[in-house]
Design goal:
- The complex is a heterodimer of chains A (about 120) and B (about 150).
- Chain A has about 120 residues and is mainly alpha-helical.
- Chain A has one domain.
- Helices cover about 85% and strands about 0% of the residues of chain A.
- Chain A is built from six helices and no strands.
- Chain A is globular.
- Chain B has about 150 residues and is mostly helical.
- Chain B has a domain of about 80 residues.
- In chain B, about 85% of the residues lie in helices and about 0% in strands.
- In chain B, helix 2 crosses helix 3 and helix 3 packs parallel to helix 6.
- The radius of gyration of chain B is 22 Å and the shape is extended.
- Classes of the chains: A mainly alpha (about 120), B mainly alpha (about 150).
- At the A-B interface, helix 1, helix 2, helix 4, helix 5 and helix 6 of A face helix 2, helix 3, helix 5, helix 6 and helix 7 of B.
Chain lengths: ~120, ~150
């Protein structure tokens, strides 16, 4: 059941992205920025948390989930460390993902060459 | 001058015809179904990693979610390097852009493409041509949320 919920919520979030690509002039880059920022705002408003409780990875794997982790981290940071936490919380919570993206991204770019387009 | 203009118009028309014949007919319903299926599949796979991390490695929800992101980013960086992710992306559209794997793809793809410009301004800088804006807006928004919580809610 967990897997079906993840499939449906994850699929629906991607479907919203596809509608935005097809119906507006938003480039994928803008979609990524929009989705992460929306995730932050929706989490702050308390709207995204129920979606995570229901959909699990279906809500945390898409980019709004990255925004969710950033916002949740910032809120937790403030609870634990006060003002300093507002600045450290978001990145602390997402440090693993950001570092993995930089390190694995760098290694893959160095090790592989672009394939000829046909 | 006239003959050049005519020639250019002809080339332009040939180009347009060619472009039209190659570019797929936009089929929003089909695009949406594929985005749903591929995006859903990636998230289901993410749920599998999360469950393994929780059940076999005793991780809490946050740790399991982090290890899921790291694993998916690793797989996506590898598949992008091998040229496989682009092939999935051609059919999946947003289904391959919106999950965290799309974020890793957006790092590797331009970095690899601009490698000949060097390892600092080519790979090092171009990695962030899409990831940079994402981090700028995402992290800034999280600081705003933190500040609002500190001054108005806490």
């Amino acid at each position: 059941m967990e897997y079906i919920k993840a499939f449906i919520i994850g699929g629906l979030i991607c479907l919203i992205g596809q509608i935005l690509i097809d119906k507006t002039n938003l480039t994928p880059a803008r979609i990524l920025v929009l989705f992460v920022t929306s995730g932050v705002i929706l989490t702050a408003l308390g709207i995204y948390e129920p979606l995570v409780d229901f959909g699990g990875a279906g809500a945390t794997v898409p980019l709004p989930g990255f925004g969710y982790a950033l916002a949740k981290g910032a809120i937790k940071g403030v609870e634990e460390k006060g003002l300093l936490g507002a600045f450290t919380g978001g990145v602390v919570a997402t440090a693993g993902g950001i570092t993995a993206a930089i390190v694995f991204g760098y290694l893959a770019s160095v090790l592989f060459d672009p394939k000829a387009k046909n | 001058m006239d003959s050049i203009d005519v020639k250019q118009k002809k080339i332009h028309k040939e180009y347009q015809d060619l472009a039209n014949s190659i570019s797929p007919k936009s089929n929003i319903i089909g695009n949406c179904i594929r985005a749903f299926l591929v995006g859903g599949t990636i998230c289901t796979f993410g749920q599998l990693i999360t469950n393994i991390a929780k059940n076999y490695y005793d991780m809490n929800t946050e740790e399991a979610s982090t290890i899921t992101s790291i694993s998916l980013i690793f797989i996506s960086a590898l598949l992008t390097g091998m040229g496989i992710y682009e092939k999935i992306g051609k059919r999946a559209g947003a289904g391959s852009v919106v999950p965290i794997t799309g974020f890793a793809n957006s790092i590797v793809s331009p970095a690899m493409e601009h490698k000949r410009e060097g390892y600092v301004m080519g790979v090092g800088a171009k990695m962030f041509s899409i990831a940079g804006p994402v981090l700028v807006y995402g992290i800034s928004a999280s600081v705003v949320v933190g500040l609002v919580n500190y001054f108005f809610i806490r």
